[in-house]
Structure of Carbohydrate ABC transporter permease:
Amino acid sequence: MTTASVENARLRKKYARRHAASRVGVYGAAVVAALVCAMPFLWSLVSAFKQNRDLYNPNSNPFLFNEPATSDHVRYLLVDTPFLTFVWNTLLVALAVVALTLVLSLPAAYSLARLNRPWGTPMGIAIFLVYLVPPSLLFLSLTRVVVGLGLDDSLWSMVVVYPTITVPVSVWLLIGFLRAVPKDVEEQAMVDGYSRLGAFARTVLPLVFPGIVAVVVFTFTLTASEFVYALAFVSASPKMVVSTGVPTQLIRGDVFFWQSLQASTVIMAVPIALLFNLFLDRFVTGFTMGAVKT
């Protein structure tokens, strides 16, 4: 072998070792980040099955079962409290708000993105600015609206109010995504005989499906975790959602049913985490496209 060949082989081995070391470093950092992010969930899962004397012993490892595990606290949550009612109420409200948000935001975003009116951009910015108003400033006036409609202490009060949070950001997101779809696609469908509505339904909607998924996931998770409006508009326990019902039932004065609280956290976190992971690619695509194509 010539000197040049030997030197090339040495350089290739050097770069291969460097590449392997960098890959190990990246994967190692990813594993550490995953463990750090998963640690609160693991701690909640372990705490939900701990006995009282294990939980309150300062010398016990919080991530291990120092005493035999027990399911009494999970059973108490599911049997002795209306937790399942709270979950059902949350699901009903979330699905209703998701449907209402899509019905309102899709036509609004389409008109602002496609009709080329001079007021389109200012209107889109104004709609998004509504989302930036803190709920603590709005719930007093919205309470008057809810009472005027006769919806106080009703699940419908949250269905009416939550779109004030979800629609503005959904419209802004969908505007960016609709602008990323070429107009030629829609115009070709209209040349083939479809109306504007038919062209929108048959050609545009399939292309903006990642954006719709992003809106659905965002709306569902925000509705399931919202606290201020749920606390202000509903005080009857059978009509409460998880975000307000669980603290009401499991925090009594200075007594915390800690293991049951952690069990409720795990039960609610698992389906939302699965929903996120199921649509993760489309969710990320929807938000990134909506962010850069406005």
